[in-house]
Amino acid sequence: MRRGLGLALCIGIAFLAEIGGRFAPLIGAPLFAIALGVLIVNALPALRQQKALRISDTSKLCLKAGIVLLGASLDLGDIVHTGLESLPLLGVTMASGLICALWFGRYLGIDWRMRCLIGIGTTICGASAIAALAPVIRAKADAIAYSVTVVFFFNMVAVFTFPALGHLLGLTDSGFGTWAGTAVNDTSAVVAAGFAYSEAAGTTATIVKLTRTTLIIPLVLGFGLALPFLVKDAGDGGESLAKRVYAAVPTFIILFILAAAANTAGLIGSHAAQVQIIGRLVMVVALAAVGLQGHWRAFVGAGSRPLILGLVTWFVVAVSSLAVQAWTGTL
Fold this sequence. Notes:
Blueprint: H1 2-23, H2 28-43, H3 55-71, H4 76-107, H5 112-133, H6 141-169, H7 173-183, H8 187-197, H9 199-214, H10 216-230, H11 241-247, H12 251-264, H13 272-291, H14 296-301, H15 304-328
Helix pairs in contact: 1-2, 1-13, 2-8, 2-13, 3-12, 3-13, 4-5, 4-9, 4-15, 5-6, 5-10, 5-15, 6-8, 6-15, 7-8, 7-9, 7-15, 8-9, 8-13, 10-11
């Protein structure tokens, strides 16, 4: 019952966001949804304590469903082309971000596990990457919580600053979508920033981000293989590395590709446009739920050094993405 109330609240916020997006299209419904969610949860702090509303589950489920529906409106060939084209750029931004997180975090005196979590959360896909890596490197609960909070904080910053910066820099839809897909942390924030810029930018950003998300697998495997060299008493932890790698596979990405394959085969046909609209609306509901998880007190609890590390790492990733695109003439 309460879970239904939580979903109804998110739908209500999404409805208001859609109205706001029509009056202010430059801001768009995705940004309005997150902003309204943040305002409501901070105006009514007791709402955050209502675990039975399952707001977090709503955000995850709706975001994945929206992405799968988006796939049903795309051509599989375009997805493969965009994904493969972004791989070299992703290699540069990920390497830059991880090196920065590990080196600069050491200079700040931050524990190596938290450096790894903030680094992978910033360069791959936010909380999902942190959750996948944490059991592999035996991260403690406080390190996980701090890392997730740092990444979530910069998600919120990116959602409201990237579209404005993109217009200021005069980026094309493809250029901005690639930039957001490589430099914004979490999938929800990438979707919000991308579609706030334009439909085309949102589609490109989502594809690039999903390509980036699949790189969780080799990175988790790499950290797992390196763990015995990092920690002398690293045992098996009760679960094999193979199982952890398997658990890191994002199932919704497979469904996204299958949905695109169905559309490419002509199984969806003339309904593709309607499916895309429904998918976008479902994503707005998901972003409303994301906003409802943005309590300011969590940001204060993260401390200054992890926030500084997150900021510098994120800056390096964002600038390296723009620099490579400018050098290759794809902006």
